[in-house]
């Protein structure tokens, strides 16, 4: 079994990004700028935003952390988004999810200008990804592709089973794995909570991507010998022996599954770190206007 070391990969990629930022700044461009908006003070969300801000510092990005009260109205949040959409000093921004229940997430995501939507959650970016057009790919699926790519894991012609169909992981991941690309070109099966006899599918899988959010759900008896296993789960469970008071558990029973598979990504230290790095890559793309021209209006006089 070979460990897919998310920590090592993330470090490598951050160095690459930092190099590029240096070159950009030397050539007279402004420092890439990411803004993260957190509504409320959920502990896990706060941790995620903090690690995103810290990662920005590591690669030489400018970052701004905007914390809004939990009881902010939907209109107030929309106004904040409008400000960020129109602020030329902001390359990309994220609204940390989940949002409080009184705010309609769909409405919020629709309000984000697609060219600044570095999380890739706006329907425009989801549609672009679906149609294989340039655009922001959401961070977790993008990070998993990067893992497969950097470990030279063959995907062409393989059978990939994705467990979970969420908008941010399972659904995009399944589409990306079947694309005519590298990585990609898999035969993909999407399994979810209503799948009967899940093992029937996972036992046929060359690549399993577990993204359902149930600790230690995928056990060794469900995995074919030599399979590649990507663990996307991150459930917090109490652990008094830890300084933080909790530990993270993946969707995979690592102890037993690792003995049977060819490659496995651990939790912690796997996909999560790649997620954060993908956000940095998307922000760099935003700063370079890789997918969208900043001014899309036409000056008729120039036609
Ligand atoms: C690790 C996230 C669910 C809902 C909203 C490193 C992260 C996590 C784990 C991280 C996640 C999960 C993030 C590890 C960002 C990934 O070492 O295992 C990093 O920061 N993540 C998020 O912003 O919102 C979420 C999961």
In short:
The protein has 303 residues and is an alpha/beta fold. It contains ten helices and eleven strands.
Descriptive overview:
With 303 residues, the protein is α/β, with parallel strands linked by helices. It has two domains: 26-113, Rossmann fold (3-Layer(aba) Sandwich), CATH 3.40.50; 139-276, NAD(P)-binding Rossmann-like Domain (Rossmann fold, 3-Layer(aba) Sandwich), CATH 3.40.50.720. It is 37% helix and 16% strand. Strands 1-11-8-7-5-6 form a six-stranded parallel beta sheet. β5, α7 and β6 (187-191) form a beta-alpha-beta unit. α1 packs parallel to α10 (271-287) and α2 packs across α10 (271-287). The longest helix has 21 residues, at 6-26. The N and C termini lie far apart (60 Å). The mean pLDDT is 96. The chain binds ligand BQF. The site of ligand BQF has 13 residues, from α2 and α10.
For CATH, the homologous superfamily of the largest domain is named as: NAD(P)-binding Rossmann-like Domain
CATH-level-2 architecture of the largest domain: 3-Layer(aba) Sandwich
Mean pLDDT: 96
Main β sheet profile: 6 strands, parallel
Rg over CA atoms, rounded to whole Å, is 20 Å
Helix content: 25-40%
Topology, number of strands: 11
Structural class: alpha/beta
Bound ligand species: ligand BQF
Molecular shape? globular
CATH topology of the largest domain: Rossmann fold
How many structural domains can be distinguished in the coordinates? 2
End-to-end separation: 60 Å
């Amino acid at each position: 079994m070979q460990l897919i070391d998310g920590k090592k990969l993330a470090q490598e990629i951050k160095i690459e990004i930092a190099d590029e930022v240096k070159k950009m700044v030397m050539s007279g461009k402004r420092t890439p700028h990411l803004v993260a908006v957190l509504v409320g003070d959920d502990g896990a969300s706060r941790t995620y935003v903090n690690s995103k801000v810290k990662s920005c510092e590591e690669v030489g990005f400018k970052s701004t952390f905007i914390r809004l009260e939990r009881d902010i109205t939907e209109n107030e949040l929309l106004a904040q988004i409008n400000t960020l959409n129109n602020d030329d000093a902001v390359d990309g921004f994220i609204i940390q999810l989940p949002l409080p229940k009184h705010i309609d997430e769909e409405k919020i995501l629709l309000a984000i200008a697609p060219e600044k939507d570095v999380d890739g959650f706006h329907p425009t970016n989801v549609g672009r990804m679906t149609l294989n057009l340039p655009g922001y790919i959401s961070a977790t699926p993008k990070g998993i592709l990067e893992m497969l790519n950097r470990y030279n894991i063959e995907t062409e012609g393989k059978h990939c089973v994705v467990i979970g169909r969420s908008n941010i992981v399972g659904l995009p991941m399944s589409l990306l794995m079947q694309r005519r690309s590298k990585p990609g070109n898999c035969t993909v099966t999407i399994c979810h909570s209503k799948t009967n006899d899940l093992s029937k599918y996972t036992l046929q899988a060359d690549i399993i991507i577990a993204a359902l959010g149930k600790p230690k759900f995928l056990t060794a008896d469900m995995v074919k010998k030599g399979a590649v296993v990507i663990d996307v789960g991150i459930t917090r469970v109490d652990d008094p022996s830890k300084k933080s008071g909790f530990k993270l558990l993946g969707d995979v029973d690592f102890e037993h599954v690792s003995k049977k598979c060819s490659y496995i990504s651990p939790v912690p230290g796997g996909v999560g770190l790649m997620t954060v790095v993908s956000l940095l890559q998307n922000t760099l793309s935003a700063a370079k206007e890789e997918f969208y021209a900043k001014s899309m209006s036409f000056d008729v006089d120039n036609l």
